[in-house]
């Protein structure tokens, strides 16, 4: 009744998940041995995914090996070493290595997702920026074995993992505030800067779990700030990163000092140039002058996501406390200045 006669065209197959912990637990070398076996025998028989010596598959299935996270590199070392030592007769392969990094302070599941202040806001964002450290750390190991960067990184679990709410602690349900949206934007910017190695950065929990995009209760549903960030960043999918230089400034609270502004730019598949600009400072606006080499930018049009407070959330009763608003800026005297609101994410197309 629930079957299917035609074969599925499966794009990605994970060769295990967190095999170092709840998915095993295996030592790195034992996992690498198991990965060889499953990497060899797990294959798709869909006509579009069958390769031959004379004709490669039109849509090859990609196998994702298991890695670890920040400061945990044994799996990356073992998996990449195994990948490098394949012989002509080996029929297994991997296309990417999975890395997981959840943000919490001092660790996941401890920080509140609502009713927090600037201290908790700044500390969580400091931890969020360590995503860059994790990617740099594992990329350095992968470069030893794969300098051509044929194997990608799949950051397939990430986000703010905060104290669960609700009756069942293990359901891992938490609210989603403006802080989550800003953290999502910072993660996207990090992924983009490492696009030569990071090939996948999907959200793992879409509904009701950890940093979800949607919250539901019976027939009720509400979109979260994280949902809106995903939607605002859509032009960056399949785009080409454009290097940018900017004065980030600083945002300081207590012993936490962060860049005030974070920016990425890309040329979308239709040729349009997009900017994503995040102002981390919850109190001070920022003014950014856009100078694009080889392009006279006359205006910028897009959306801005901000709210009254860093802990503002959307609820079933008030669904638009944190929702995008239109943004427009026009050049004056040949200068295009973008005024960034405090605690905001602005995504614009240059014209």
Account of the 3D structure:
- With 351 residues, the chain is of the alpha/beta class.
- Helices cover 22% and strands 25% of the residues.
- The chain is built from six helices and 17 strands.
- It has helices spanning 28-41, 74-84, 118-128, 130-145, 178-193, 225-232; strands spanning 12-14, 62-66, 96-103, 152-160, 198-200, 214-217, 220-223, 240-242, 250-253, 256-259, 261-267, 273-279, 286-289, 299-305, 325-330, 337-340, 344-350.
- Strands 8-11-12-17-14-15 form a six-stranded antiparallel beta sheet, covered by helices on one side. A five-stranded parallel beta sheet has the order 1-2-3-4-5. It has a two-stranded antiparallel sheet with strand order 6-7.
- A hairpin with a 2-residue loop joins strand 6 (214-217) and strand 7 (220-223).
- The longest helix has 16 residues, at 130-145.
- The protein is globular and about 65 Å long.
- The protein starts with 11 loop residues before the first strand and ends with a strand.
- The model has no long low-confidence stretch (mean pLDDT 94).
Provide a quick synopsis of the model:
By secondary structure, the chain is α/β, with parallel strands linked by helices. It is built from six helices and 17 strands. The mean pLDDT is 94.
Write the SSE topology:
Layout: E1 12-14, H1 28-41, E2 62-66, H2 74-84, E3 96-103, H3 118-128, H4 130-145, E4 152-160, H5 178-193, E5 198-200, E6 214-217, E7 220-223, H6 225-232, E8 240-242, E9 250-253, E10 256-259, E11 261-267, E12 273-279, E13 286-289, E14 299-305, E15 325-330, E16 337-340, E17 344-350
Parallel strand pairs: 1-2, 2-3, 3-4, 4-5
Antiparallel strand pairs: 6-7, 8-11, 9-10, 11-12, 12-17, 13-16, 14-15, 14-17
Helix pairs in contact: 1-2, 2-4, 3-5, 5-6
């Amino acid at each position: 009744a629930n079957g299917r006669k035609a074969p599925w065209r499966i794009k990605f197959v994970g060769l295990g998940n967190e095999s170092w912990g709840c998915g095993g637990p295996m030592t790195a070398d034992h996992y690498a041995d198991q990965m060889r076996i499953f990497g060899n025998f797990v294959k798709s028989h869909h006509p579009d995914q069958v390769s031959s010596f004379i004709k490669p598959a039109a849509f090859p299935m990609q196998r994702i090996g298991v890695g670890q996270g920040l400061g945990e590199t044994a799996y990356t070392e073992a998996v990449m070493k195994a990948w490098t030592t394949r012989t002509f007769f080996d029929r297994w392969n991997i296309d990417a290595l999975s890395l997981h990094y959840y943000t919490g302070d001092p660790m996941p599941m401890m920080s509140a997702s609502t009713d927090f202040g600037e201290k908790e806001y700044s500390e969580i964002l400091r931890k969020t920026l360590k995503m860059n450290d994790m990617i740099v750390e594992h990329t350095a190991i992968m470069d030893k074995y794969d300098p051509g960067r044929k194997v990608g990184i799949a950051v397939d679990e990430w986000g703010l993992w905060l104290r669960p709410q609700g009756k069942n602690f293990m359901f891992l349900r938490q609210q989603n505030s403006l802080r989550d949206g800003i953290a999502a934007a910072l993660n996207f910017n990090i992924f983009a800067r490492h696009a030569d190695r990071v090939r996948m950065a999907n959200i793992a929990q879409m509904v009701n779990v950890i940093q979800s995009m949607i919250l539901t209760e019976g027939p009720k549903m509400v979109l979260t700030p994280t949902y809106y960030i995903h939607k605002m960043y859509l032009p960056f999918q399949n785009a080409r990163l454009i290097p940018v230089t900017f004065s980030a400034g600083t945002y300081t609270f207590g012993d936490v000092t962060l860049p005030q502004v974070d920016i990425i730019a890309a040329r979308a598949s239709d040729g349009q140039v997009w900017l994503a600009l995040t102002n981390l400072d919850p109190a001070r606006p920022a003014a950014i002058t856009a100078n694009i080499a080889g392009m006279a930018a006359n205006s910028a049009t897009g959306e801005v996501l901000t709210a009254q407070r860093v802990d503002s959330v959307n609820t079933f009763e008030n669904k638009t406390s944190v929702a995008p608003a239109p943004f427009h800026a026009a050049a004056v005297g040949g200068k295009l200045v973008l005024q960034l609101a405090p605690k905001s994410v602005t995504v614009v197309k240059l014209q």
